[in-house]
Amino acid sequence: MSLILPDWLVIAADREPAEDWGVRVIDGVIDAIGPHGQLRADHRDDEVIDAAGHVVMPGFVNAHVHMYGVLAHGIPVDEAPDGFWSFLDDYWWPKVEDALDHDMIVAATDWACAEMLRSGTTSFYDILEAPHALPGALLAEKEIVEARGIRGILSFEATERAGPVIADLGLTENVDLIEAARGSDLVSGMMCFHTTFTCSEDYIRRVFGLAEQLGVLTHAHCNEGIHEGAWCEEHLGKRTLEFYDDIGVAGPGFLASQCVQLSDRERAIIAETSMRVSHMPLANCEVGGGIAPVPELLGAGVTVGLGSDGYINDFYEVMRGAFLLHKARLLDPGAMPAATVLGMATEGGAKALGLDRVGRLEPGWSADLQIVDGRFPTPLSAHNVFDQLVLWRNHTHVRDVMVAGQWRVRSGEVLGADLEQMRARTQHQANRLWSTS
Questions:
Q1: Phi and psi of 387, rounded to 5°?
Q2: Helix (H), strand (E) at residue 54
Q3: Which stretches of the chain drop beneath a pLDDT of 70?
Q4: Which domains occur in the chain, in start order?
């Protein structure tokens, strides 16, 4: 039983920050919130965690990450891709995904989990595509995620691009992980396939059928650039979301990531069918995909989470990207206010992933939180806490992180992690990957 007493408590993005309020944590959940004096008086025997000079806020929910992606940071490229299809076909598939093995995946998973924890992320959804690392790649990830103590939803990006044997193995990989994680407190699974241009209609229907049987969501990348929508128009006679709607899979059980290049009708389908969306502002820029119409989706009532895509995993940087890019696209400094961005990074991401009672610091909700340095050069007040956090903080300001009531970062150090040893292992595996490219 612990009382955590900061200068400011961020309960949720839709609640005004509370000065001199704290939280009581017991048995992995938030038991109470309130003024310091009241909490001390009501719980005199509790351990007190002094967070003076700090802000306590919900842990981040990274709604879309490729943990193996860290191995591609700085990879040598003979010739830069000249478009999204070139990025996939000439670079990402042959040089990264097709070359991955279990040792590479394990090293990258451990590093990425530590990196996410260090920057205040307490939950994430990972998408692995490594066709030649089947079977067992997700179970190898699961072991690392549980050891690191972070909440993770894991999936394999099943696809038919590598042939029918790999296509079936990808589906089995997801099913096996979902079943194996039934008894896990932190790890769960999701069905996943790549896109319309690498998966047939029959295969996509199989994925959604399995998800319904297993009681989980289904994820797919959707219109990350102009390629998929154009491909669907040429080969299917309709846009991507129109195809999904026509075959009856668009709905609340579908998590569509990216959603960058959308027609007006596609935006309407997402809203009308209550699909979920995850937004990767920085990675969409890196691949030249464009800027997703997220303010418009939010305005239509769509649930949108925020993701790093495994590109830059410091979630403060990801929030900043979301905060700034849409202002520039819409020529509107009022677009995407800090509270909206913080909401996508916490409770919005949890809702997109189907996580229950995650993303707020309310009684009965999971004790997933971070303690962040609140000493800014200008005064903190209720009207500016969200802006100060979104604009002027990064992973170096995160002091402590708790997941389900357990400390995973203390004084900026990831507990139980030898980062130098992990860095050396990740570099070794990156060199192995690069040598096969």
A1: -65, -45
A2: strand 47-58
A3: 437
A4: 2-58+369-403 (2.30.40.10), 65-353 (3.20.20.140)
